[in-house]
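On to our target:
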Amino acid sequence: MGQIVGAAITPHHPAIVRSEADRLRLGDGHDTDLVPGFARIRKKIDALDADTFVLFDTHWISTSMNLVAGQEHYKGVYTSDELPHVLSSVPYDYPGAPELAARVQDIAKQREFPAFNATDPHMANHYGTLNILSHLRHEEKVMSVSACQNGSLSNYLEMGAIIGQAIADIDCRVVMLASGALSHAFTRIDETPRNPNFFSSENIFSDQNMKLDHEVIGLFGAGRHDQVLDRYCEIQAAKYEGWGSHYFQMVGALGGGNCRLLGVPMSEYENARGTGNILIWFDVPSAEQQAA
């Protein structure tokens, strides 16, 4: 019935929702390539007749349970408690995907896996969701997914597999969005950047982190997700955002280590306060193509 029709890794750092003038000031006259990169990804989505986004939000940190957001609708005004000087009084208004979220919880219960459909209307929203939607959402419904801080690789892959089964069980056409950076170690607040252009990759936290990021991007390009999974310990050492849960859950829904989807960069690789950021798109074959 349902199908995953596309997937992407989508950084969400706050500069992407700043004005162009503010971004140029940050970049010493240079702009982030993520903003035009989102437009490139939106063109991909436009060709897919997608109706739902499943968004793996590394800013929605959960403990002991893997959560999905299952309200009918999300409407409110958001101010970040982390960065209120950047994200303040931001309105949001978008439909949820309650049928999909409910199905995730049902399958998790059958498998005795710790996942929960969170529907309380007072639950906080997060900019890992909202910043992405501001660039990519048109009419799609949205189900956000948490990053469980005491999960492990096997947990993330199983949660992804459960979401993949839930998508298959209902009538939907889903684009999955792994919202977060790659390496995510921050430079100190008082550290002088190596390059005055905030977005320059010269400002990544360490050469080691940047080297790992480029190797992982290369493995995405070759479709070798099995080899990315094999480097889980290195990824944790580089502090991938949300423990890498955004990517690991997404690839779990796409077949885990058997996934061979090719990752195509849709932006330059760039810095945000020491973290490694790039937009990566994965074409997903249609059901007809998979059956051929």
